[in-house]
Amino acid sequence: MLLDDLGHPVPFPRPPRRVVSLVPSLTEALAVTVPDRLVGATDWCTHPAGLDVPRVRGTKNPSLAAVRDLQPDLVVANQEENRELDVRRLREAGVPVWVTRIETLDGAFASMHRLFADVLQVPVPGWLTAAEQEWAQEPPPGPRVAVAIWRDPWMWVGARTFTGDLLARLGCTNAVTAERYPGAEPEDVDAELVLLPDEPYVFTADDGPEAFPGRATALVSGRQLTWYGPSLTTARVALLAAVHI
C-alpha cells in the first residue's frame, strides 16, 4: 500500500488501468504519457488539444456519479484544486483517490515521479526528465515581481505557492509576501514588474495593464505559471523572456 502526498494510504492490488483526473495539470500529464489509461477528466481539462475523454463536470463540483460510472481504479486529485468532501465521498464509495500536494517545483517533480513510477508503474516520461534538466539551470538575477490572479477585488500570488516558487527559480523576488493568495490594491503592491496571466482571471491588453501606470507589465500564459505537467518543459524559457523584458 502506498501513501499519497498527504500521507493517506491508497490500496493498489495492481497498477491502475482506468484513471479519472480531476486536475488539469495531471490530466495533461496522463494524456501525454499513458493515454490508454485516462478514461475521464473535468470540463476544465483543456490540454492536450483535442483531448477526447468523458467529462465529469468541474474541479470544484465534479459529478461523483459520473466518476463512479466510469469504473476507475484510480482518481487523481489535488489538495488545492479539489474539495476534501469530494475526495472523502469517493473513498467512502470504494474508489481509490490519490491526492497530490504541489507547493514547489521540486515538490511537483517528486510527486509526478511517484505517480508514474510507483503508482502507475511506467517509466519516467521524457518530458519530465527534460523539464527537470531545464529548470536545473541557474537563472540570471530578475526583478521584483507580482503576479495578479484576480481583479475586483485584486488578488495576488503569495507565499507557499507553486507559482511563487517558480518566481524564485527564475531569479525573481515575489513582491507579495503574505500567505497564499492575499488581496491588495495595485498601488499597495511594490513591484517592478506585474505579470498578468490569462487564468483564472483572463487579463488582456485592454484589461489589466491600465491599472499600473508607470510600471512594467507583461501578459503571460497562466498555464506556464500554474500548471505542473508537460508545460514545464517550455515554461522556463517563456517566463524568463517575460520577466526580463
From TrEMBL:
Signal sequence annotation: none
Domain of life: Bacteria
SUPFAM superfamilies: Helical backbone' metal receptor
Database matches in InterPro entries: ABC_Transporter_SBP, Vit_B12_bind_prot
Keywords: Receptor
NCBIfam families documented for this protein: TroA_like
The family this protein is said to belong to: Belongs to the bacterial solute-binding protein 8 family.
Protein name per its UniProtKB record: Helical backbone metal receptor
